[in-house]
Amino acid sequence: MKLSVLVVSLAATLATAMPAALSDPSNNATELVPRQNEIFYEWVCNKFNGGGGQEALRRSKAYFDHRFGTNVLTAASKQCYGVGNDCHGYYLLVCNHSGITRSELPGMRDEIANRAVNDDWGCVTTTIRDSGYMRYYWGKSGTLNSLWDMPNKDWRNC
């Protein structure tokens, strides 16, 4: 008898709690669904060895912040912000690949600077939280290719 009361009570709780949690727009979808593609949160690189490692990436981020500031950037559709050439031999880009104006997520540049790049370069990363439209590119100066073929560019030297 006690077990049936527990089951009925649990069923009633789930019936009332679940739909509210799933239909509440204040709930963030990332809290309801676990990350399903971990690689989407890491740097993906196509050049290996000789990349300068984590310290080079952090220096690139520091140069970027020096030239553009530390506030969240808002980019028009197909717009990139970048630093490079004389930035200790590396570039760092923030690009909006969507068809609308978008802003970086707060703290995202700090987050990407702490993601492991090992000794690789020619790298890209993004986040599921913004649907992957804001992408970050990092690599050796002079190796930037079609990634930089965006119509709107704001390129600054260090």
Automatic annotation (TrEMBL):
Protein name stated in the entry: Ecp2 effector protein domain-containing protein
Keywords, ordered alphabetically: Signal
Domain of life of the source: Eukaryota
Signal sequence segment: 1-17
Keyword Signal in record: yes
